[in-house]
TrEMBL record:
Ranges of Basic residues composition bias in the record: 402-413
Similarity-based family: Belongs to the Dus family. Dus1 subfamily.
Entry keywords, A to Z: Flavoprotein, FMN, NAD, NADP, Oxidoreductase, tRNA processing
Compositionally biased residues, Basic and acidic residues: 355-392, 482-502, 528-552, 568-590
Name of this protein: tRNA-dihydrouridine(16/17) synthase [NAD(P)(+)]
E.C. number(s) listed in UniProt: 1.3.1.88
Gene Ontology MF annotations: flavin adenine dinucleotide binding; tRNA dihydrouridine synthase activity
Domain DUS-like FMN-binding: 21-255
Cofactor(s) listed in the protein's UniProt record: FMN
Amino acid sequence: MSGPRGYEFWQETLKGARLTVAPMVDASELAWRLLSRRYGAELCYTPMLHAHVFVKDARYRRENLASCPEDRPLIVQFCANDPDIFVEACKLAAPHCDGVDLNLGCPQAIARKGHYGSFLQDEWDLVRTMIQRASSEVNIAVTAKIRVFEDLERTVQYACMLEKAGASLLTVHGRTREQKGPLTGLASWDHIKAVREAVKVPVLANGNIQYLDDVWRCLTFTGANGVMSAEGNLHNPALFTGTHPPVWQVALEYLHLVLQHPCPPSYARGHVFKLLHHCLCMPENFDIRHRLSKTSTAAEMVSVVEMLKERMEPYSNGECPWTPDPDSDQARLPFPPWLCQPYVRISPEQHLKKVQESQKRALEKAKLQKNPEGEGDVVEKEDSDTSKRPMDEETEDSDISKKKKKKMIRNPKKSFNPPGDQYEKCVCKNPKGGRCVYGLCRACCRVKCYTLALDCPGHRILVKTKREKAAIYYGQLKKEEEEKKLKEEDKEEKRQKVKNEQQDQMLNGEDAADQEVLMGGEENGGSDQEKNIQQRNRIPEGGEKVEVRETGTHSNYSTSINQQPGSDKCEGKDKDTNVEKSFNEEKGKGSESSSMLLAAQLTNGVDNDSEASLPTSLVDHQGDNTT
């Protein structure tokens, strides 16, 4: 994708950075990066992040991408062995940094187990694919940090392959993956120089950078575009300024940054231990060392540093003379122990020699234990330089290595020969718990307590107590459910009772209304409706009778006619009045045909016993013209 690459990336995005702080696990967090930038660092890396965890865990991303405007330019480093995961991690990190780096240099055992870092050196196809895809699919520059092969030519080929794959910058650590720990040794600047001359992308040199003079010597010898420092920066963050400030000054400055930008306490404690290393190795400061090891907050660490400052500042100000023991490590330091300075490892040759001497002493001790009768004999060795010392010079500490002797100097109470097994055995042959009420180890005690529902306060296994609490809890829960059910049943019963009462009231109300109507009719001579019915049912003079019977809300009308022969009394005013009054309660108008039908029925004779129901259309009829 588009974006600056190669030298354009180094000059524009990274501002031509030459002084770089290396990515360090649990060490190059935000607070330390800001401290290093105050003392001259121009480019910083985040700690190595696991790409797989970075993609899956949002909290891991949030904690490790913590930054601020002053923390730029910044490169995020990943360890990965899956192209898809690496590309996805780059996409997630791109908005928060200026570049993404692939770690191809970690030599630790965890990298071997996880199959990443320098243990991908022999899998060129996989490395090529990861860098190609990330550089082409993500709009951000991709860099790589590598270690060298013993073969210089193979190292150059490896670097050229990474350049062709799309790496915009290479950081070359001039050590092989076998050079680590006590076997670290010196980095090969010759390998770095060969890579710099072979590739056309910027190169940062890493290794042997402990003083500012080392920076300029490295740049001059290798021709690299910049240098990177790791361990030198940890012991003296002011390395790139060429100064050596007091350790408490730098430590307090760092801890104040930690208070502003929090980090795990183990990170901060590790930094303070490294800064104060030379002072804490002094026997008079062992108490401060022990107190520092017990701190868990930045505020507690500040108080410990203040204590060391109060104790060592008179030496720094010249108020007290500094006269170290000539045989002590502090006497061999290039600067007083209260000033920031690098930690120098012994050479691999010296380390191997110490290991061989320790092994020989252990072998001789084993032989003496097998042959106690030959205490006065001197065991001859093939090499005269490593012959065993006379027995009369043997002391209790003769078989202790120098490293153990140093530890004993720091802590005279420390013992490397613990006494024999003093613990009482459980039935399973493991040491039983000292406070176990059943005289068992924790595992056996747990099994017994769970099987027999017992408590063991000594092991804090409270099975019986927890089960009793659970029984009480579930009993209360069941009781609450039953009470809730009863309340619901009471509510339903009351609701039904209210409903029945309402229905009874409605029925009683209707009966009362009917009774009132009847009573009112008797007192007032009948209602209007009854009067109308009586009026409609009267017998006219001519012997004609019209009856109207009402049922419910609808009226059934029937007409009975008794007419004398030759009588015309049905015609005229009385007839019209009877018909009109029969429908005075109805609305609407009927059709003329219906009126004529009624008139015809009235005119023609109808038997007294016959009843004819009027058509429905007559209900709405208000006829004035009935014939």
